[in-house]
Design a protein that fits this description.
Rossmann fold; 13 helices; 2 domains; binds nicotinamide-adenine-dinucleotide; single chain; ornithine cyclodeaminase, domain 1; alpha/beta; about 35% helix; about 375 residues
Length: about 375
């Protein structure tokens, strides 16, 4: 019997990993424009949410500590595997570190070879805001022009600009328990021609709001928004309640609205939904996108997006940023996987590196 060789076994796989650093990612976003970047990312997200069934999905794996959480978020389709490492430590800003820090990768499903590694701290803020805008375009009233933005930290500019650029929000009403955060947000938004109002309470920020975005950080069952504060017709974009023991919305807010989620098994554990009974009805957003479930059905209806951040969004963001960076020639080569003449002889790598290793020993001894 003649043996057939597949093309795959004859071609030696490329061992190239490309890297996008935060400095280059920021330069790319500056060149593209922050709103244009999020517009492009929202299109990539729609494309991927539209082929939801093609992805192997799971809730993320979380390791909790008293002050925070570290999460791994995997997803794959038939071609590429993506993962993100991300933390959430609300206490960090007190010691000069961000609450959220992240990086991630795309790998070939055929070989497992990691082909792209990227910063995802900036990219997470872009993808979270692009996701919020994608969802709000289907759920918020089309005449929405005013948004309350509660929580004015690292994510907030991106949320503000995504809703301005992709939904037509003109007035933003800002509130944070830390007035310096609100001043920082107002200053960063100054060049964008928005009507920005700094408020001294959540109630003040909610005045006339069509959309309410909550993006606060506190590892607690917080009540940023109570049931009586929500008005008919509002769309709630709840971004900050995203891990067990960390919520922003009173249960009454969820009961008063129709609730939309990214991936139900994950949101049941992590979202504001964690407060509700297991049979509380929610709709996964991809079904609205594909016309399989209704979005908003009336002007007086209250809609709630209980956002926690799902791995598919990072897959979309990674592939979108890689495409932008490739086109701009801004990817760097990263030496990550060793090149071997004989893939079964990993040990040979130690012989090749012998002179360098001796050099290290000499340096340590000196
Ligand atoms: N859903 C997602 O996909 C997603 C993605 C990224 C971040 N997040 C979450 O969003 C939240 C914000 O992230 P960040 O990077 O902007 O954090 P950050 O620490 O930079 O900012 C959070 C802000 O919330 C304010 N705040 C805390 N409690 C408040 C309250 N009761 N009322 C008003 N303001 C309050 C803080 O003063 C701070 O300015 C975090 O909880 C983070 O885990 C969610």
């Amino acid at each position: 019997m003649t043996r057939k060789h597949t093309t795959h076994s004859l071609v030696s796989p490329r061992l190239e990993t490309f890297f996008l650093s935060p400095t280059r990612a920021a330069e790319l976003v500056r060149r593209t424009g922050v709103v244009e970047t999020m517009r492009g990312m929202a299109l990539a997200l729609e494309e991927d949410f539209g082929r939801w069934q093609e992805f192997e999905k799971s809730a993320r794996t979380a390791n909790h500590s008293p002050h925070g959480v570290i999460e791994l978020m995997p997803v794959s389709d038939h071609r590429e595997y993506a993962f993100k490492y991300v933390n959430g430590h609300p206490i960090n800003t007190r010691s000069g570190l961000p609450t959220v820090m992240a990086f991630g990768a795309l790998a070939s499903v055929d070989t497992g070879m990691p082909e792209f590694i990227s910063e995802l701290t900036l990219t997470t803020a872009l993808r979270t805001a692009a996701t919020s805008a994608m969802v709000a375009r289907r759920l918020a009233r089309p005449d929405s022009r005013t948004m309350a933005l509660i929580g004015n930290g690292a994510q907030s500019e991106f949320q503000a600009l995504a809703f301005h650029g992709l939904l037509g929000i003109r007035q933003l009403r800002l509130y944070d328990v830390d007035p310096a955060a609100t001043r920082k947000l107002a200053a960063n938004l100054a060049p964008y021609g928005l009507d920005v109002v700094c408020c001294d309470s959540t109630d003040d920020a909610l005045r006339g709001a069509d959309i309410v975005t909550t993006v606060t950080a506190d590892k607690a069952y917080a009540t940023i928004l109570a049931g009586h504060q929500v008005m008919p017709g509002m769309h709630i974009n709840a971004v900050g309640g995203d891990c067990p023991g960390k919520t922003e919305l009173a249960a009454e807010v969820l009961r008063r609205g129709r609730v939309f989620v990214e991936y139900e098994p994950q949101t049941r554990i992590e979202g504001d939904l964690q407060q509700m009974p297991a049979d509380f009805e929610v709709t996964e957003f991809w079904r609205v996108l594909r016309g399989e479930a209704p979005g908003r059905t009336g002007d007086a209806q209250i809609t709630v997006f209980d956002s926690v951040g799902f791995a598919l969004e990072d897959y979309s963001a990674l592939r979108y940023m890689r495409a932008l960076a490739t086109a701009a020639g801004m990817l760097e080569r990263l030496e990550l996987i060793p090149e071997l003449a004989d893939p079964k002889n990993l040990f040979a790598l130690l012989r090749q590196s012998a002179p360098a290793a001796a050099g290290v020993r000499a340096a340590v001894a000196a």
